[in-house]
Design goal:
2 domains; transferase activity; Glutathione-S-Trfase_C-like; four-stranded mixed β-sheet; Glutaredoxin; single chain; Glutathione_S-Trfase_N; Glutathione S-transferase Yfyf (Class Pi), Chain A, domain 2; 203 residues; GST_Omega/HSP26; transferase
Length: 203
Amino acid sequence: MKLIGSNASPYVRKVRVVMAEKRLDYQFVLEDVWSADTTIASSNPLGKVPCLVMEGSEAMFDSRVIVEYLDTLSPVGKLIPQQSRERAEVKTWEALADGVMDAGVLCRLEATWAGRADGERSQVWMDRQRAKMTSGIAAMAKGLGDKPFCSGIHLSLSDIAVGCALGWIEFRFPDIDWRAQYGNLAKLQDKLMQRPSFADTKP
């Protein structure tokens, strides 16, 4: 398997963490999708990472699709439950975490994209995305409560998605001090960072 991605992308990190937790071998190919000479469109017509290229088959893209597929490849460390209700809960956690990252990416692009002049940037739009981020983080903290993990007592995709989202917020938005406000999330993140899968993929 070949994973195309970048070290800074939280979506790519989610896939890399799942790969590590599942003990799957793969080749990691760095790609800057913003570069003029990027070749990502040859694998993903949407021009986005992560993109998983399987030998002799079509490329697979969108982190949610990739991680669900990867969880079927090995019985080691099952991350997505088979039961419908528990499965829906884990996928909802993933959607929440991805939504926080989506809002963060939109906010950051509005603020930093070189294709837009300073006078063209919308503060109202950035404020709207930041509100989604802070609301999503608050929902994570409420959902976690005093549990050891997001979806019960074992590591699951819920925790991986949340950990990648929080790690990226720390990396790109250090002014959002979620640690001071939500001690339970800080405790979870510190616990996740003790795992090699997280420590080795820190942006």
